[in-house]
Amino acid sequence: MQDLTISTSKNGNNSNITNEYQLFTIALMLANKWHNDEAYSNKVWSEITSISRIEIDAMEISFPKSLNFKMHITKEKYAFWLN
């Protein structure tokens, strides 16, 4: 997998998601936080995944930014994938 570089700030700081494991972890973490009011803390995610808390924090900010904060799908896309 090619590294996914996503901007974490306007001043050019970047966070690199360097493998599928990090990508899956941050997606799972954010989905868990999206759906559960009492989600695991970033410290727990760090302990479970062996990804540093600093990296978890950076990815938690940069991943939604890379999606333009669109963490949902339209009704049309949902219907397409149902068929």
TrEMBL record:
A Gene Ontology term for the protein's cellular component: nucleus
Full protein name: Cyclin N-terminal domain-containing protein
PANTHER family found in the cross-reference section: PHO85 CYCLIN CLG1 (PTHR15615:SF27), PTHR15615
Record GO terms (molecular function): cyclin-dependent protein serine/threonine kinase regulator activity; protein kinase binding
InterPro entries linked: Cyclin_PHO80-like
Highest taxon above the source species: Eukaryota
One matching Pfam family: Cyclin
Source species taxonomy: Eukaryota, Fungi, Fungi incertae sedis, Mucoromycota, Glomeromycotina
CDD domains: CYCLIN_ScPCL1-like
Organism in which the protein naturally occurs: Diversispora epigaea
